[in-house]
Amino acid sequence: MSQSSKRILVTGGAGFVGTRFVTDLVEAGHDVHVVDDCSVGSPDRLPAGVTVDEVDVRSRELEPALQSYDPHAIVHMAAIHYVPYCDEHPGETYDVNVLGTRTLLDAARTLDTLETVVNVSSAAVYPPLDGPLSEDVRPGPMDPYGKSKLVGEELVNLFGERTDVDTVSARLFNVYGPGETNPHLIPAILDQLRDGSRTVELGNLTPRRDYVHVRDVSRALQRLVDHADDAPPALNVGTGDAHSVRAVVEAVSLALGEDIEVTQDQERVRASDRPHLQADIERMSSVTGWTPTVGLVDGLAELLVMDGVEAT
Asked: Which residues form the NAD-dependent epimerase/dehydratase domain (predicted)?
């Protein structure tokens, strides 16, 4: 697909990643329409002029919403993705993440101008292995969320094979940045620092994750919209580096300029928590030219300022 102005429909576009992505698309001159049930995200955070259909992706109302907009590209983000919630609600997770994707693709078959579908998937489709994970690693999800995202990828691949639409799945690693809507590690740290405390209570302290800033993720997704025609079925979106929970706290301490003590709270410890999750981004960079630009300390320093966390 060319890089000229397009009509781009974003499901889940009022959420954490979606808001950043939609904002960047508008600034790039695209015509953007959002489909979101607004159960988590808020359309108030979207740029002026962006139209929003408050529709569940599982709903029969989705097809007429797509037909009325007739997009050139669809970027599918709508999902339940907070892992502890997914573990407790596997049926709902399957319903939204799998059946919602199928409903979207069924509706997409009726569109006249659709050229591209970018499916936002997750590194949770991978097995728990040490070291950087390339797209050649055989999937082996270890929880309901990862399993649901893998089935979603398979549905998108099949859609691409049976239509003339270019498709690709973006396997996001641990996204952080302004506007995060789930209580993941970095928001949990900032919440505890905001009142002036310099001691944080966290769960598992040793797992290593690849933390990628939401601005870099948005840039990656934009590249995939433009390069889906020559992309493989899935590409990793991460930084290529992994940091332990303790290392993240140390990075926050460095960004803040103050020592932070960390203790383990057994109530926060996840029963099932993979020890290592790290991206190999060589293929993503080769296919699209994308590389991450926001370092962890710089990204955290920005968050501290935005959250009003200052040195005491």
From this structure: 8-238
Reduced to 3 states (helix: H, G, I; strand: E, B; else coil), residue 214 is: helix
What backbone phi and psi angles, to 5 degrees, belong to 119? Answer: -100, 125
- Residue 73 CB burial class (10 angstroms; 0-12, 13-18, ≥19): buried
Confidence at residue 2, expressed as pLDDT on a 0 to 100 scale: 45
* pLDDT computed for residue 195 by the predictor: 86
Give the distance, in angstroms, between the CA of residue 89 and the centroid of all CA atoms in the same chain.
20
48 residue type, one letter: A
Q: Quick check: helix, strand or coil at residue 238?
A: coil
Token pair, residue 37, equals 């049930």
Q: Is residue 1 predicted with pLDDT exceeding 60?
A: no
From residue 64, give the alpha-carbon distance in Å to each of 37, 59, 61, 183: 15, 10, 6, 34
**200 membership: H or E segment, kind and range:** strand 199-202
Q: By the 8 A CB rule, do 120 and 221 touch?
A: yes
Distance CA 71, CA 115 (A): 8
* Structural contact between residues 21 and 13, judged by C-beta atoms closer than 8 angstroms: yes
The helix or strand, by DSSP H or E, that contains position 90, with its residue range, turns out to be helix 90-94
Mean per-residue pLDDT, 223-252: 98
**Among all chains, which residue has been given the structure tokens 């690709």?**
168
Give the Cα separation of 284 and 282 in Å (integer).
6
Is the pTM here over 0.70, yes or no?
yes
Cα 22 to the center of its chain, rounded Å? 13
